[in-house]
Please model this.
Amino acid sequence: MPRASIIAAGFLFAGLVGLGAYFFPLFRTAASATASSGTVAGAVSDSISNLNPIDVAPSRPFTVLLLGSDDDSKFPADRLNTQSMILLRVDPGSKQATMLSIPRDLWVPIPNQGMGKISTAYQLGGPQGAIAAVESNFKVHIDDYVWIGLNGLVKLIDHLGGVDILVTNPVMDDFYPSDLSSTGNAYDYYRVAVLPGATHLDGVHALEYVRSRHGDLRGDFARSERQQQVLLALKAQASHLNIADLPALAGAFNGEIKTSIGLDRLRQLISVSSNFDAANVNQVVLLPPYTSDGYAAGQDVVFPDWSTILPLVHQSFP
Amino acid sequence: MERRRPAGIGMGTHSRWLTAAVLAVAMFAFGLGVYHAAGYLKAGKPALQRPSETSAPALPGVMYLAQAGALYRFRRGSFSQVTSESGWTQPTVSPDGGTLVVVKRHGDWSDLYLMTTTGRTIAQLTHNYSAQVESNHWAFYPRFSPDGSELFYDYDNKDPSNSYRVDLAIFASPSNPASQSSLQWTYPNPYTGGDVIPFPLAGGGLIYTRYSIDDQSKLHSQIWLQDRAGSQGVALTNPALDCGQAAISSDQKHIAMVCTRGQVQAADLVVAPFDEANLTLGAPQTLASGLVASPSFSPDAHTIAYLAPVVAGGPFQLWTVSASGTPSPTALTSTLDLDSTSAPAWTAA
Model:
């Protein structure tokens, strides 16, 4: 082999090693995501071989179930409920999206469990259990899921440089759980006052905004609206990202985010997100008359009115 | 016969080793360079500065702003730090321009302090700390009455029968720090977060932002006017406009406010003529749109300062716009991270 070729190959190898080292956290996270989901291994492994910025956005609509859990020390890691469930449908062709918040206390039949709050489906069945509960009750097909814990959301927002939020009204809470830290009493609490108006929030304060519910007449429904709002703000921030940002993001989470979304679709989502305007995102919260408060099996629950919910869902998630 | 070592063989070996070593180092450096070059492709985050590390186009008068818990004075195009970074926010200037009342925010409570314009504390006006978490209180949004005799502010009165209820209400106290009295002006709709951002009028009335939740569970904010403490008051804006953060011009002929019109992540900065005699607002004119916050009139009422990001998702900067709408908005800063819940306190003095 000519000497010049050997030298060129050496430089090429060194460059690839440098590139590999930079993207190593992404490969590691992709591998763990594949292992934990077991559903999209092909998508992940295919995507590793091609990390160039994506040119082709998906044109087929897809639906993602977004799950959020309180994963602090009050709860065993394998016994988490989902405090937040949002069904997201993205139609890249029409540049329309719909977010539907599912009340955590919705009283529904859960596959292989019997009647229960829909938030408990994740506890016994994991992501697939939550997906099965939503698919069977709402009659929709779910393509992928994303699960995030408390610290995961904080880290995500901090890595994006914070989020800009238009706070609608004062969010006041005298009993906000002081459970983010691994030390101390997870049952301690502190006071929260998120003041109204447009503001830039870091991860901790954004979490307070989406998690607080004691001081609002609309309780969990107000919280659902705020969660959707922060998702819109995250979408705006994510549209600034490119492929070079992903290793730092992936390396930061260490199990705080789980997803069945492969790298290919993740890159497609980032590509798609810059094309969406917040005005084209339809937000749905199942307030009365879609639901009503009630009592079942010794606990406060939310009863669904399927005769009104299903037509709404079929319209938004055809 | 002396056997001479062929010249060049030893040197040639050394030379090859040297070349190989140089190439190896160069390849290592190249790999390292590729690693760092990949990092440079990341989306850039803005490099932020303290206001005192930058300057901006000069404005008439003096303005006080907050960033990262510190108070800054903006005068003749330069910023100077007035307090340390220790929870200071929401300054208001006395009508004579000689003193400030500022909120000092802690984890579970906040207090009002009277201080000189150079940041020396004269008196602590409220004492809201309690060792029991839920017994702490908040104090926010102080504002002097136009004659300087009273101080209006937000305070969370506790509801003894509903420990989860935390609604801010507007109170007024004599501005004399020796006074212990206070008068509750507003009674907020329960579990809305309360009534906020008082703006006392020269005639004795009060303008503020009031929240309500309708029978469809939809939240609304309105600019509200009361003529006296405890009165029912009247709405100056339609619930569908969702207006708040009102600021009144010094001649009390215009109100600047932020209206979302039902949007989730966008708002308009609008200005409308105010007819105090008939308790009405004229047709609103939109001056700016986006994530606009905390408007404040210049002392001569010709200009409105407000806070908004320069780039989508970024930290908040200082902007100005003519109250007439032309010329269009101008960003005066680009590298700050101003506290957007702290309206610029703008005074002629």
Chain A touches chain B through 62 residues (CB under 8 Å).
